[in-house]
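As a warm-up, study this chain.
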Amino acid sequence: PDPTEEYRFHLVRKWRFDLAYPEKKLAVEIEGGVWTAGRHTRGAGFIKYLEKYNTATSMGWRVLRVTTAMVENGGAGLLVQEVYRST
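Now compare it with the structure written out below.
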């Protein structure tokens, strides 16, 4: 099935997943700026994402982190299919 985009998973925080399969508690986060020191890899942004991912995991979510290159070359889609089927 198609994922839900910008899925808000936390009732208090305004955190959202890029893509989510709520029925499976499976989330996909696309990490941009990997080679350009984007928000996902710089100090404060990195720490905030760690808090988000760790909280999601403690709530029972499986979070897949992929790069834009993985999306473009199809690797992300294959990974998501594999994990989706196994849950």
